[in-house]
Amino acid sequence: MADARPTDRPVPSLSPRLAAIAAHVPPGARLADIGTDHAVLPVALARMRHVVAAVAVDLRPGAVALANRMVVRHGVADRVAVRRGDGLAALRDGEADVVVISGLGGSTIVRILAAQPTTLDTVGRLIVAPQSETWRVRRWLMTNGWAIVAEVLLRDGAQDYEIVVTERGDPRAAYRWSGRPSQLRTASLLWLGPVLARAAEAHWQDRWRRAADDREALADRTAASGSTRAIRAAVRHRRWAARTRRAVDAAEGAAERATEGSQSRSPTAPTGLRTAGDRAAVRS
Question: Does the pTM exceed 0.85?
Answer without folding.
Answer: yes
